Amino acid sequence: MDLRRKTKQELVEELEQCRARSLRTEERLGRIATITSGIIYVLDREGYFTFVNAGVREILHFEPDELIGKHFSYVMEEHEFRRVGRKWVLPPLSGKSTGETNTPKLFDERRSGVRKTRDLEVRLLTKKKREERILVGDVAGIVGSEGVYARSADKSEQEADTGFVGSQGIIYDVTRYKKNEVRRRQLFRSLVESQKNEAVERLAGGLAHELNSKIGVILGYSDLLRDKYGADWPDITRYIDPVLRAAQRVSDLNQKLTAFSRRDSWEIGAVDLNALVEEVADLLENVVDIRTDISLRRCPGQALVTGDAKRIRNSLLNLAFTGLDTMKDGGRLALSTEIVGLDEDFVRHHLPGGKAGDYVKVAVSDTGGGANGTVKQKASELFRGPEVIGDELGPSGVYGCARNHNGFVVSKCGEDVGTCVELHFPCRNGR
Which of 27, 31, 51, 29 is nearest to 39 (CA)? Predict the structure, then answer.
């Protein structure tokens, strides 16, 4: 409508309506800034805070007013400020073409549009660390920021640089996620290292056994040769003695191998699998991706078996980490125990020579991609291969653990439906 045709009263009323809409919008934006879980900040041209929302209180423990007028380097160590500040990052890049993939990421961003900063990881100081200067209280944040411009109606996009008034951005706290990820990797490395050590010790034991039998033959026949032909051939001692000495040195080495292979002996006793799966679930809760749910279902009372708690725990962790690796975008990992009565046909199908009776079934299932028919068959062979005995890494390690406890493994998987692996151990005292 032509404004010239409106009366003064109509223009005043329309202006009041626009002002009211503007106030409501401002109020909504204020509420959003207050309730958001991230830190929303605004910097002036020089990098000093002109606005910080209430999210800073929960994440960095500052009151918003405490940061107003402070430079953003106030919440960073100097080396971190030099890594993300425009003053330090841009001069070395002057005159160089970085391209979109290598474009610098800045806390006090001046660019906007497609070249603005996204996913900048930065370490921030909490109020406690800022004041006490001790090595505690670091916060890991993911930052998105862009430049803010005051554009006049007659300024084009290319001329916008002259209207630069500051930067604005938002920081999401990912400290817990980062710590959990680090802990998960450390735990996984420890588990793999432990299983590697077990594999080396078993290899040493097998090698020692083989050497022992061969050394016995060498020593025995060398003694026989010396006793039988020594009287008629005095020089034979010159040939036999070096053989005996060399065999004795190998025998000494073999004793050391035997001692090494027995260093990590089995510790057999009563194991409550209900308590064990709870322990494993608690451990996983602290290290899994926040998008992954851990569920636990235990049978009533105790689920007692006879065995080595450490080796069963390692097998469950082995299965859990394998399942987690199939759920890159999160999912559900379930652990459960159940006491089941199994008939002889079922047991002997999975464990030749096995006996019918009560078994504790421990199931580890995931909602990963599952497997097609070919992969499913290969997985089944890995868990049931008769040539695999022991506690090796991977599926064969789980199989070896179950067999060494007079139990067996049943694997179930289908395409796009996830995988479920069930370990069956004989009950210690029945139901």
Answer: 51
